[in-house]
Amino acid sequence: MATADGTWAYRDRFGDSFGRTYFRRFPPGVCSSIGIGSYLGEPTDRVDEAYREAIETALENGINHVDTAINYRCQRSERVIGDVLERTEIDREAIVVATKGGFLPFDGERPADPGEYIREQFVEPGVVDPGSLVRGSHSLEPNFINEMLDQSLSNLGVETIDCYYLHNPETQLLDADPGSVYDQLEAAFELLERRRAAGDIGVYGLATWQAFRVPQSHQQYLSLPAVIERAEAAAEHVGVDDHGLAAIQLPFNVKMADAFTVKSQPSDEGPVSALEYAHESGLSVVTSASIGQGDLAAAIPPAVDAELSGDTAAQRAINFARSAPGVTTSLVGMRSADHVAENVAAGTFDPLGASAFDTVFE
Asked: Cα separation of 349 and 90, whole Å?
């Protein structure tokens, strides 16, 4: 698992190669503020090999935060990362490995009949209660999350997953009322607290798409204060002193800045943004869609582009995302060594300061 000594040693090996605050605090030590994602791509051997090369190159050149999910590319993304972790010369203790559970994964390829596959692989063996499924593909049921966590540990070939996310928990709000969903989260948190105590995960979090960046009136809205309260209750029930809820993941980029601009989270001083509330609560924030799944690599709105540092549009888009107050790491999908080189180089430029970032929205 990642350790304080391992991640700090990784940081030190690069000396002054990167700009200020390139490495940032993340339990239990530090991680790069640019991370490698593994969502995009078909579930094929060719894409597997491209990811292997990209991830290995990233680890060797200053990216030590690797993000995936069990359902990405039919479990292939986790398995590719496992292959790289086994063969890389970078110490496992230097690498932050994050994955997610919540969506029912296929195995290796998309089956001809997904409904039949889910019935045979998940419902009939009792892995998931069909009553807990939303849209036939998502569950937060503790038994299901437990099974998926075991499978992720196997796919990744690790003893400990450094950060385990519940994946898009707001999906459950499409079928259930908020109170029921918070109850589901608390039950899942209890499971994760037990797995944390057993050493199977380091910390846990919520990886979301809508939940924290939409107005309170939105069907898929979740309250960060309420989520934290449920984590505290889960820890108390399990009998641990401090809860392990340590991170949230949400989309953030030049064109999707709601996590900064929408004041959706209640606080004692009035509504604040998700980024502000997370920062004040001590939660790490990891951004997804940091270059709009590639769209921002071509062009950034001129007024914003002029404020950013970087030789390419992709670099400037990355630097916008990681300049947002409270952001720990901005994830970028990288499926080639050339993309890795360009994206890592974004970290040689300093991010915007807080006041400069604010002026973008004036």
From this structure: 24
pLDDT (tens digit per residue) in 331-340: 999 989 999 9
What DSSP state is assigned to residue 134? B
pLDDT tens profile 168-200 = 999 999 999 999 999 999 999 999 999 999 999
The Cα 105–Cα 191 span in angstroms is 20
Q: Give me 139's structure tokens.
A: 């569950």
The model carries a pTM of: 0.96
Nearest to 3 by CA among 22, 23, 31: 31
What domains are defined for the chain? 4-282 (3.20.20)
- Which tens digits make up the pLDDT trace of 288-312? 999 987 777 777 888 788 888 899 9
**% pLDDT > 90, the chain:** 90
Q: Quick one: three-class SS letters along 296-351?
A: HHCCCCHHHHCCCCCCCHHHHHHHHHCCCCCEEEEEEECCCHHHHHHHHHHCCCCC
Q: Enumerate the H helices of 121-250 as residue ranges.
A: 142-156, 178-197, 224-238
Beta strands in 213-283 (DSSP E): 245-251
Contact 284, 259 (CB under 8 A): no
Helix, strand or coil for residue 221?
Answer: coil
Phi/psi at 24 (5° precision): -135, 160
- Coil, helix or strand for 217? coil
- CA 282/CA 140 separation, integer angstroms: 24
SS3 277: helix
